[in-house]
Design goal:
about 210 residues; 6-stranded mixed beta sheet; alpha/beta
Length: about 210
């Protein structure tokens, strides 16, 4: 499958004003809702911004003293904003399929918003930071409890710890069948490939369900 937005573009190009070419094709018949989840500061907003073919909707607010002692900034000390509701973007897979992307807030104090964000979603990409894998435990537990299919994407940071995918699987106690991929959330092609991995995984689950 080839996306209209498949060529690598800079993050800045993802926020250009809406153009005629951003309109949905007349042949579009399938809209798929996917969620980009993960702990605080793992790159969810960056991923939505990099891959969206339209101007993304983001709900970032400047972090204040009220977050001190509440939001851990270990590993992301330079982070000055945080998502307080959701991020939204869109990517066209082909002339018939459109992906609607919803990025979740990472802090536990905003998890009450998750039920609405996950309603109707077929699956999720869980972004993780190898410097702070323990921050992902609660996210994964919530997804498993809701029975939402997901893949894990290891986001790239300059000082990331270079664990193998199998080491990450063991650390996060992931089932053998859950795909793990590397991802640079700043790059459109890398973010797109993670989303395509999720789509292929969802298709495999659907095929297996039909056989059984």
């Amino acid at each position: 499958m080839r996306s209209k937005a498949s060529d690598p573009l800079s993050a800045d190009s993802a926020v250009e004003p809406l153009l005629v070419e951003h309109a949905l094709p007349d042949t579009a018949r399938l809209g798929v809702k996917l969620v980009i989840a993960g702990a605080f500061g793992v790159g969810k907003t960056t991923m939505v911004r990099s891959v969206s073919e339209i101007r993304p909707l983001v709900t970032e607010e400047t972090m204040t003293q009220a977050s001190v002692g509440v939001d851990s900034t270990t590993g992301v000390e330079t982070k000055s904003t945080t998502t307080v509701a959701m991020d939204f973007g869109r990517i066209t897979v082909d002339d018939e399929m459109i992906l609607y992307l919803f990025g979740t807030p990472g802090q536990e104090r905003f998890w009450f918003l998750w039920n609405g964000l996950f309603e109707g979603a077929l699956g999720a990409v869980v972004l993780v930071d190898t410097r702070r894998l323990e921050d992902s435990f609660g996210i994964l537990e919530k997804l498993e409890a809701s029975r939402t299919p997901f893949i894990v994407a290891i986001n790239t940071f300059p000082d990331s710890i270079d664990y193998s995918h199998e080491e990450v699987r063991q650390a996060l106690d992931l089932p053998p069948g859950v795909p793990i991929v590397g991802c640079d959330a700043r790059r459109r092609d890398s973010s797109r490939d993670a989303l395509l991995t999720l789509l292929h995984y969802l298709q495999n689950l659907a095929d297996a369900s039909e056989v059984s």
